[in-house]
Specification:
Layout (H helix, E strand, L loop, with lengths): L2 H8 L5 E12 L4 E10 L2 E6 L4 E6 L4 E4 L1 E6 L8 H8 L4 E6 L2 H7 L1 H10 L6 E6 L17 H5 L7 E7 L2 H5 L3 H12 L3 E4 L6 H9 L4 E2 L5 H9 L3 E5 L7 H10 L5 E4 L12 H10 L4 H7 L2 H7 L15 E4 L9 E4 L2 E5 L2 E2 L33 E7 L6 E7 L1 E3 L2 E3 L6 E7 L8 E7 L7 E4 L8 E5 L2 H13 L3 E6 L2 E7 L11 H17 L7 H6 L9 E4 L2 E4 L4 E2 L11
Parallel strand pairs: 1-4, 1-5, 6-7, 7-8, 8-9, 9-10, 11-12, 12-13, 18-23
Antiparallel strand pairs: 1-2, 2-3, 5-14, 14-15, 15-16, 16-17, 18-19, 20-21, 22-23, 22-25, 24-25, 24-26, 26-27, 28-29, 29-30
Helix pairs in contact: 3-4, 11-12
C-alpha cells in the first residue's frame, strides 16, 4: 500500500477498501467512547471520523467497536489440541493474537518442540508470537526430555516471531547469580527483548533484585498486596485466569483502585472446557465486578501490546492494525463480528473463514519408560503418619501437612478414610527408572486411579490412586497409547484420552477432545473425586517451583527447603 493511497483515503479523497459506519469506538488511548466511522485499507486503520465512504460499507448502527483481544501468556499445549483447533475455538471469542510459551513441549522435545509449534501455526488467521522457554528443565530436581541452555536459545532469539525469554521460574537462580540463568537473561537484554517473570511470594529486597536483573512481568500474584508491591516496583502484572489457577476475582480490587495500565489479562493454562470463552470472559467478569469497561479492555489489548513492543496493535487509531471486535454491548463481550487484518473472519459469533489444511510436522514417540511392575509402586513404611501434599482448590500452591496412611505387609498404602492417596511420578523421557513416591490429600478418590503424561513442568507420567494395582494398570495404559489421560477402576480402563503428540496434545478435533475431557472428569468423579478438574490439579502436583510441597520423578520436594524430604521424617517446624 503506497503512502499516497494511505493519505488520500485518510483525507477522504479516495474510497477506502472497507468502512465501518456509525460506530461507538471504545478508545483505549483517550479512555473514552465516541462516535465515528472507521476507514480501513489493506488491513490497516487509516482514518477515523465522519462521512468516510468505502467500496464496502458496514453500518453497525451504534454498536461498539473495540480492539481485538490478546492473550499475553499462554501455554497453548495445555488446550491439548493442535494450534489450528485452538485458533478455531478462540477466534469467535475475539482473541486474534496470542503470546505463547512452548515450555511444555520444549520439556519433551527441546528446540524441536519450539519449531513444531511455530510450523503448526503458519497460515492461521491468528497472530502467534513466541517467548522462548527459560527453564527447561524448571529445576535440577526433575528429569526432563531436554535441557535448553543459553546457546540453544540464541539460535532462535533473533527470529522476528520471538519476543523474548519466557517466565523465569528459577528466581533463586537469579538471586544467587547462577551462571546459566544469568546467561539467558543477558541474551534477552542484549537484544532489547522482554523477560517474563514467575515469582510467587517474592518480596522486598529480593524482589527488587529480581526486577533489576531485567525481569519485567509476573503472573503469579494471588493477592492485591502482592500485586500492588510489584506494580509499585514497575512490573507488569499478568492477571491469570486459567483452569487450575484462577486469580481474577482476588485481584479485582487492583483493577478497581489502582493504575491498571500495567495490568494484562492472560490464561496461562486452560483445558478445552474453559477455552470457548477466552480473554473476553475475563473482560466480562471484570466489568461485572465493577471495573471500568475501558480499563478492562485495555488489559485485554493495548497494555499487552505495549508491554511486548507490538507496535500499532491493541488500539483503534490511524496506522493501527484493523484487528477489531464489533460488540452489541459492553456487558456480554460476545462479538457479533471479528475482523483480522481488516477482513471479517467471524460473523454472528461463527467463524466464516476457512482455515487452510496443513500437514502436521512429524514427531517421534515420547513415552520412553523403563519396564515397570506393580511392585514399583510400593513404599516401604517407616510409620503410618506421613508428610503429605495437601491440595488447595483453584490454586497451584499446596500445603505440607501430616496425615495417616494404612500399612499392609510393610507397604504404606492409600487411606481413603483420611483421603491420603498415593501419588507417583514416573520418568518417561530417558527410561531412567526414576519413580518419585509420596501421598496427596484433596482428590477424595474412593477407588481406582487416575494418570496422565501432562505433569508440569517436565511432563513425566503422574499417577494418583487408591491401590497399587490400578495405578500400575493406568501407567501401562499410558505407555501403550504413547501418552494421554486415563481413569482406571477395579482393574479396568473406564475412560481414556490418547495424547500422542509429545504426550501433551491430540491430533483430533477440538470437540472430540472436549468430549473426552468431560468423560474423563465424569469418570474420576464416579470413583469419588471431588475436584472440579482433577487432571488439571494433578498436573501441577509435580511442579517444584510452586510452594509448598510437590513430587517429581526424584522424590518429594519441599520448596521452602528447596530440597527433597523424607515423608516419614518429622521436622520441628512441622510438629
Amino acid at each position: 500500500m503506497s503512502q499516497e493511497k494511505v493519505i488520500n483515503v485518510a483525507r477522504g479523497l479516495e474510497k477506502a477498501e472497507l468502512v465501518i459506519k456509525n460506530a461507538n469506538i471504545v478508545n483505549v488511548l483517550s479512555e473514552e467512547i465516541h462516535k465515528a466511522d472507521i476507514a480501513i485499507e489493506d488491513g490497516i486503520i487509516v482514518g477515523i471520523g465522519e462521512n468516510y465512504s468505502g467500496h464496502k460499507e458496514i453500518d453497525i448502527n451504534g454498536a461498539y467497536v473495540t480492539p481485538s483481544f490478546i492473550d499475553g501468556h499462554v501455554h497453548l499445549e495445555s488446550a491439548m489440541v493442535l494450534p489450528k483447533e485452538f485458533a478455531k475455538t478462540v477466534l469467535p471469542a475475539g482473541t486474534t493474537t496470542a503470546i505463547i510459551d512452548p515450555h511444555e513441549i520444549s520439556n519433551v522435545f527441546g528446540l524441536h518442540g519450539i519449531s513444531f509449534m511455530h510450523e503448526a501455526i503458519k497460515n492461521l488467521p491468528i497472530d502467534v508470537y513466541t517467548m522462548l522457554p527459560s527453564c527447561v528443565p524448571a529445576t535440577p530436581f526433575e528429569t526432563s526430555g531436554f535441557d535448553l541452555n543459553s546457546y540453544d536459545l540464541s539460535l532462535l532469539i533473533d527470529k522476528p516471531w520471538v519476543l523474548g525469554i519466557a517466565e523465569m521460574m528459577n528466581f533463586p537462580g537469579v538471586l544467587n547469580l547462577d551462571k546459566n540463568v544469568m546467561a539467558k537473561l543477558e541474551l534477552a537484554k542484549q537484544r532489547d527483548k522482554r523477560i517474563d517473570g514467575h515469582a510467587p511470594y517474592l518480596s522486598n529486597k529480593d524482589l527488587c533484585a529480581y526486577i533489576a536483573s531485567g525481569v519485567k512481568s509476573d503472573h503469579e500474584c494471588t493477592t492485591p498486596k502482592e500485586a500492588i508491591e510489584k506494580l509499585r516496583l514497575g512490573m507488569y502484572i499478568m492477571i491469570r485466569e486459567g483452569t487450575a489457577a484462577k486469580d481474577l476475582n482476588a485481584l479485582i480490587p487492583v483493577l478497581k483502585d489502582c493504575n491498571t495500565r500495567k495490568c494484562i489479562f492472560v490464561t496461562d493454562d486452560r483445558h478445552p472446557s474453559d477455552l470457548k470463552e477466552h480473554i473476553n470472559g475475563m473482560v466480562r467478569r471484570a466489568v461485572e465486578a465493577g471495573v471500568n469497561p475501558i480499563k478492562a479492555i485495555q488489559c485485554a489489548s493495548l497494555n499487552t501490546a505495549e508491554y511486548f513492543g507490538l507496535k500499532n496493535l491493541g488500539a483503534i487509531a490511524p496506522g493501527y492494525k484493523a484487528d477489531l471486535l464489533i460488540l452489541p454491548d459492553l456487558k456480554t463481550f460476545k462479538p457479533n463480528f471479528v475482523l483480522k487484518d481488516g477482513k471479517i473472519i467471524v460473523e454472528n459469533g461463527q467463524l466464516i473463514t476457512t482455515l487452510e489444511d496443513s500437514e502436521t510436522p512429524s514427531m517421534r514417540g515420547s513415552v520412553n519408560v523403563k519396564w515397570i511392575e506393580k511392585e514399583d509402586f510400593r513404599i516401604d513404611a517407616k510409620s503410618d503418619e506421613v508428610l503429605t501434599i495437601e491440595v488447595i482448590p483453584h490454586q497451584l500452591v499446596t500445603k505440607a501437612i501430616y496425615s495417616k496412611v494404612k500399612v499392609s505387609d510393610g507397604n504404606a498404602i492409600s487411606n481413603t478414610e483420611t483421603d491420603t492417596l498415593k501419588i507417583c511420578v514416573i520418568e518417561r523421557h530417558r527410561a531412567t527408572g526414576n519413580i518419585g513416591k509420596g501421598f496427596v490429600k484433596g482428590f477424595n478418590l474412593k477407588s481406582g486411579a487416575i494418570a496422565s503424561t501432562v505433569a508440569h513442568d517436565s511432563h513425566n507420567m503422574i499417577v494418583v490412586g487408591t491401590n497399587d494395582l490400578d495405578m500400575y494398570i493406568a501407567a501401562v495404559e499410558l505407555v501403550k497409547s504413547q501418552g494421554g489421560k486415563v481413569v482406571v477402576n477395579n482393574g479396568e480402563v473406564i475412560s481414556k484420552l490418547p495424547l500422542p503428540i509429545a504426550g501433551l496434545m491430540s491430533d483430533k478435533e477440538f470437540n472430540y477432545v472436549l468430549e473426552k475431557c468431560t468423560e474423563l472428569n465424569n469418570a474420576a468423579h464416579s470413583i469419588g473425586c471431588t475436584l472440579e478438574d482433577p487432571f488439571m490439579t494433578m498436573a501441577f502436583m509435580s511442579l517444584p517451583v510452586i510452594p509448598e510441597l510437590k513430587v517429581t520423578d526424584k522424590g518429594i520436594f519441599d520448596t521452602n527447603k528447596f530440597n527433597f524430604v523424607d515423608i516419614f521424617e518429622k521436622t520441628k517446624t512441622m510438629i
